[in-house]
């Protein structure tokens, strides 16, 4: 754990591509709050015991011996001369949370085996080494994944979970003192080796680029715990994973090199609340390198221009580590940053404590509509493979729903799986759904995502290793119908009586904004003329907003009482080409002025990004000394200079990052969905980004669909929504790749959400 007052090991030297925001040291308050934070993290069980730490070291030592024995056996079997056999060597490196020193009890250890040029990945690593491990009694749950983007072999060794990668270098002999941080190590290696080495190289570079490793570790441990509590820790579902959070924290450490974890946590939220995504977060300048490997560069590569939240790795080849982020997940994370910033300010005023910051996000109280994705297989091995594949595709469902509803229906994927103990070999995933906030509600408006869901299921079922029994089912469920197995102990909780930070702020927001609410969004009545359903709806919504442990809202009027799919979420700009950051409610993000002179049709003007490769003469991000007291903000009491600090953050944003912009659609997904692009063109959308503004004044218009009548549509219907699903084989074909089926008109809709009928539905199910 961090020691308050631990000195800056890089005093006088600048780390990062800009000057620090503040060189101020800790106050007595910071020392006290940091000790409180460390005790809190220890009390919640984030630190492993000494015995477990020793056990991990023993396992790693044993694994190193095993790969050395393996490579000698390989050298003999290949008939190499005796000298090479004697010198044959392989070496184990660690990376990820274990290497960064922020792993918790029972965590996996990310490891890398580096071998010589004659030890192949396919035959020797996944062949001979796999065979050796399978015969060892200490090894259990051994499963190779050779066809993964980064090939990996997972197993448990004496109960310790190991993820083992392999890198085949061009060297005949692997020296024991091998330095894999040198770029030359990548010469004459294949793509899998470059990707496998990347984890270790990035982790080591992060540790070199932070001013105080101990403070970095404590802050990162805190932020990882916070992200998991708030449901935003998951790379595969479109949030951020371990390396992403490490890079974000490392950048804050560079900007506040002498700060303790208490201040670093506070400034983390303050900086990233004001960050103008998609400006990239970088720890050092991006170098082209001499090996010709592709680095992140939106000037050259169109796909890089579509990344919404670029967080760039510091080791060559520099890449965007957060390409999975979507418009919905970015909006959720930005809202969480805002919540964290406000709680930290409340803590400074003694109005909140650390446990307030770490209040869990009550996902199943947050929305009224959910998608439930159930998968099953015939045995454990098949289910493990099927789960891995489906999880990798869930992000595509989020993107497809966003696109096919023109960002009017927002998705919140839950970053985890649930298992019903009564159904072995099954597991379930959930996704919260809500209408976009701040847009006027059209009476009877519905979202028809039948074909979107079928398209997703079709892509999942294209799995090349699919076997009989591997099934997927998608259903629409309301909050009251959420299965009990998702709750702790399998018991659905009663409405929470505890007043949380989230519920209190939501209540305050509703009261403060009630006078200015937009009457046009209110429900005028239902088809049957009954009014009691509306009254019940209002009571239900009020209860939800008061009790829900959900995300915080900033000045969003409760203009649509019939639309409370959970509580409103502040509308964060999805980084459109025009850079407009005000939504229909009038809410404007702080310090969001975007220079537009360097933007052409939503793309980057190359001249504005020359500083990406080298800024202020920086080569490695740490060269050159900073004169004493030089910084963007020079003060010993940063907390009393918030305005000056905000200006310093703004100065950073307008400095080395230029005017990097992105449109909300990702080129990668566009390439996968050519038919969607054609449908968009057919309804008159000639822009690269999704159509959002046209939806607010489309009441009474005909449903939007493709020219062939088979595309996803947003129907504006007066009747109540039908919310059950039909079997996959009964669905209309999406493209000519899908077998023909019965006409759409003869079938019930898969999922049709009618938000204006929720009060009526509540009455029926209440």
Automatic annotation (TrEMBL):
GO molecular function: ATP binding; metal ion binding; poly(A) RNA polymerase activity; RNA binding
Domain Poly(A) polymerase RNA-binding: 363-421
Gene3D superfamilies: 1.10.1410.10, Beta Polymerase, domain 2, Poly(A) polymerase predicted RNA binding domain
GO biological process: mRNA processing; RNA 3'-end processing
Required co-factors: Mg(2+); Mn(2+)
Family in the record: Belongs to the poly(A) polymerase family.
Biased composition (Basic and acidic residues): 531-541
This protein's record includes keyword Ubl conjugation: no
Catalytic activity of the protein: RNA(n) + ATP = RNA(n)-3'-adenine ribonucleotide + diphosphate
Occurrences of domain Poly(A) polymerase central (ranges): 215-359
Superkingdom assignment: Eukaryota
Stretches assigned to the Poly(A) polymerase nucleotidyltransferase domain: 16-210
Protein name listed in UniProt: polynucleotide adenylyltransferase
Signal peptide location: none
Alphabetically ordered keywords of this record: ATP-binding, Magnesium, Metal-binding, mRNA processing, Nucleotide-binding, Nucleotidyltransferase, Nucleus, Transferase
Subcellular location: Nucleus
EC number: 2.7.7.19
Annotated region (Disordered), positions in chain: 484-593, 683-719
This protein's GO CC annotations: nucleus
């Amino acid at each position: 754990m961090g020691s308050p007052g631990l000195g800056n090991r890089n005093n006088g030297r600048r780390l990062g591509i800009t000057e620090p925001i503040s060189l101020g040291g800790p106050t007595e308050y910071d020392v006290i709050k940091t000790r409180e934070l460390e005790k809190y993290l220890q009390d919640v069980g984030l630190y492993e015991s000494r015995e477990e730490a020793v056990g991990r070291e023993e396992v790693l030592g044993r694994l190193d011996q095993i790969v050395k024995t393996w490579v000698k056996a390989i050298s003999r079997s290949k008939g190499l001369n005796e000298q090479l056999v004697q010198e044959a060597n392989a070496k184990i490196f660690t990376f990820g949370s274990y290497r960064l020193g922020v792993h918790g009890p029972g965590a996996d250890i990310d490891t890398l085996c580096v071998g010589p040029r004659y030890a192949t990945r396919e035959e020797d690593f996944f062949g001979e080494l796999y065979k050796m491990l399978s015969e060892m009694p200490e090894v259990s749950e051994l499963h190779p994944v050779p066809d993964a983007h980064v090939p990996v072999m997972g197993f448990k060794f004496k109960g310790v979970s190991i993820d083992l990668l392999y890198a085949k270098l061009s060297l005949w002999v692997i020296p024991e003192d091998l330095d894999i941080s040198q770029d030359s190590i990548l010469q004459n290696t294949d793509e899998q080796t470059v990707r496998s080495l990347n984890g270790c190289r990035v982790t080591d570079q992060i540790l070199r680029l932070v001013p105080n490793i101990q403070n970095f570790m404590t802050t990162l441990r805190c932020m990882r715990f916070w992200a998991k509590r708030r449901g935003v820790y998951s790379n595969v579902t479109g949030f951020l994973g371990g390396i992403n959070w490490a890079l974000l924290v490392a950048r804050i450490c560079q900007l506040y090199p002498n700060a303790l974890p208490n201040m670093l946590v506070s400034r983390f939220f303050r900086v990233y609340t004001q960050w103008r995504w998609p400006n990239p977060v970088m720890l050092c300048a991006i170098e082209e390198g001499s090996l010709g490997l592709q680095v992140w560069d939106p000037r050259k590569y169109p796909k890089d221009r579509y990344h919404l939240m670029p967080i760039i790795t510091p080791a060559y080849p520099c890449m965007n580590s957060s390409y999975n982020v979507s418009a919905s997940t970015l909006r959720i994370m930005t809202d969480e940053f805002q919540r964290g910033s406000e709680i930290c300010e409340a803590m400074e005023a003694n109005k909140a404590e650390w446990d307030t910051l770490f209040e869990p996000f009550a996902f199943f109280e947050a929305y009224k509509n959910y998608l439930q994705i159930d998968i099953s297989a015939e045995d454990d091995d098949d289910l493990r493979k099927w789960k891995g594949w489906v999880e990798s595709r869930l992000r595509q469902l989020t993107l497809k729903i966003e696109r096919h509803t023109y960002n009017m229906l927002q998705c919140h994927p839950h970053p985890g799986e649930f298992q019903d103990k009564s159904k072995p070999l099954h597991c379930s995933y959930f996704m919260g759904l809500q209408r976009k906030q701040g847009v006027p509600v059209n009476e009877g408006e519905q979202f028809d995502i039948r074909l979107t869901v079928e398209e997703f299921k079709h892509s999942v079922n294209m799995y090349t290793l699919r076997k009989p029994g591997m099934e997927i089912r998608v259903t629409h469920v309301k909050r009251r119908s959420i299965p009990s197995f998702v709750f702790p102990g399998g018991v659905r909780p009663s409405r929470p009586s505890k007043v949380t930070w989230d519920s209190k702020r939501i209540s305050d927001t509703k009261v403060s904004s009630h006078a200015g609410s937009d009457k046009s969004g209110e429900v005028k009545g239902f088809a049957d003329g009954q009014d009691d359903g509306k009254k019940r709806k209002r009571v239900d919504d009020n209860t939800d907003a008061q009790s829900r442990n959900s995300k915080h809202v900033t000045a969003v009027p409760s203009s649509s009482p019939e639309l409370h799919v959970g509580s409103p979420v502040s509308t964060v700009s999805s980084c459109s080409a025009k850079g407009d950051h005000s939504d229909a409610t009038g809410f404007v993000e702080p310090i969001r002025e975007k220079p537009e002179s360097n933007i052409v049709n939503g793309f980057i003007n190359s001249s504005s990004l020359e500083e990406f490769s080298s800024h202020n003469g920086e080569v490695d991000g740490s060269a050159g000394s900073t004169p004493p007291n030089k910084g963007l903000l020079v003060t010993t009491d940063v907390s009393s200079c918030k305005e000056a600090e905000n200006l310093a953050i703004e100065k950073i944003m307008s400095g080395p990052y230029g005017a990097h912009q992105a449109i909300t659609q990702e080129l990668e997904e566009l390439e996968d969905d050519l038919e969607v692009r054609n449908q968009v063109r057919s309804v008159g959308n000639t822009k690269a980004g999704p159509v959002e503004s046209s939806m607010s004044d489309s009441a009474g218009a005909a449903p939007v669909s493709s020219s062939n009548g088979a595309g996803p549509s947003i129907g504006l219907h007066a009747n109540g929504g039908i919310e059950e699903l039909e079997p996959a084989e009964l669905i209309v074909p999406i493209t000519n790749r899908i077998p023909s089926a019965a006409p759409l008109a003869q079938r019930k809709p898969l999922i049709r959400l009618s938000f204006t009928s929720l009060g009526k539905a509540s009455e029926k199910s209440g």
